[in-house]
């Protein structure tokens, strides 16, 4: 298995102290910053945009920023996130009129690409564009809110995505997002995830290092 990447979703952080929260969670052992962008159109909630991403960079955050766009349309905002310091930009295929063009746009801006699949969305959109995809993100809740219950059907879909990735000749990361924590990380890693988003499971605890250690220990059980 690839090294496990833990990407805390800052949606669940104390947003009044965002820079310090991100510093603290990276010092506690997290790998990436998962940055949820919601537009009150594609999803029924509103979060934050490129100025907040840029503010994290100006604050001195060096960790990769994993931008999860829950916006429609997607193309207009991609260059703004690239300029704001995003490393990876993922979008939902149904939110883009031209998926191949949006993937190319992300690459042209020097970022890595991701495609995101809602719980009820099949993986079909990957069929003709997988050579332009660096990460597949499977939603294990319906997008729009943190703190929801993990949908177990995701495990079957992770296995399907893992088989698809293993048939490729280049590396693609497999990320899972929504309701993941110490109780189910072993199952998602056993099903093929190598990148795990956790929002409320991490920021909802007083000791970030302790919960990240627990996540890694439980994930390691899947490999043994
Ligand atoms: O994309 C998201 C919601 O649309 C979030 O990344 C996700 O909900 C993470 O939060 P939690 O771990 O609390 O479920
Ligand atoms: Fe997300």
UniProtKB/TrEMBL annotation:
Catalytically driven reaction(s): D-ribulose 5-phosphate = D-xylulose 5-phosphate
EC nos: 5.1.3.1
Position of the signal peptide: none
UniProt-recorded Gene Ontology molecular function terms: D-ribulose-phosphate 3-epimerase activity; metal ion binding
Gene Ontology biological process terms in this record: pentose catabolic process; pentose-phosphate shunt
Keyword Isomerase assigned: yes
Any Pfam family matching the protein: Ribul_P_3_epim
Domain of life of the native organism: Bacteria
Entry cofactors: Fe(2+); Zn(2+); Co(2+); Mn(2+)
Pathway recorded for this protein: Carbohydrate degradation
Function text: Catalyzes the reversible epimerization of D-ribulose 5-phosphate to D-xylulose 5-phosphate.
Entry similarity comment: Belongs to the ribulose-phosphate 3-epimerase family.
Protein name per Swiss-Prot or TrEMBL: Ribulose-phosphate 3-epimerase
Organism: Spiribacter aquaticus
């Amino acid at each position: 298995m690839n090294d496990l990447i833990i990407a805390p979703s800052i949606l669940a952080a104390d947003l009044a102290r965002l820079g310090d929260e991100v510093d603290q969670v990276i010092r506690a052992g997290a790998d990436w910053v998962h940055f949820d962008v919601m537009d009150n159109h594609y999803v029924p909630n509103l979060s934050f945009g490129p100025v907040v991403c840029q503010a994290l960079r100006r604050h001195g955050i060096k960790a990769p920023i994993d931008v999860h766009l829950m916006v429609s349309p997607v193309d207009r905002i991609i260059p703004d996130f690239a300029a704001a310091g995003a490393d990876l930009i993922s979008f939902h295929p149904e939110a883009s009129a031209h998926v191949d063009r949006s993937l190319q746009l992300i690459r042209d801006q020097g970022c890595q690409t991701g495609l995101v699949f809602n719980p009820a969305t099949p993986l079909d959109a990957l069929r003709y564009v997988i050579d332009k995809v660096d990460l597949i993100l499977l939603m294990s809740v319906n997008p729009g809110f943190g703190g929801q219950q993990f949908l177990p059907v995701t495990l079957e879909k992770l296995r399907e995505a893992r088989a698809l990735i293993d048939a490729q000749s280049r590396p693609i990361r497999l990320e899972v997002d929504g309701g993941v924590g110490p109780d189910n990380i072993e199952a998602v890693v056993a099903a093929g995830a190598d990148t795990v988003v956790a929002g409320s499971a991490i920021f909802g605890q007083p000791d970030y290092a302790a919960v990240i250690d627990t996540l890694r220990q439980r994930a390691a059980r899947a490999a043994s």
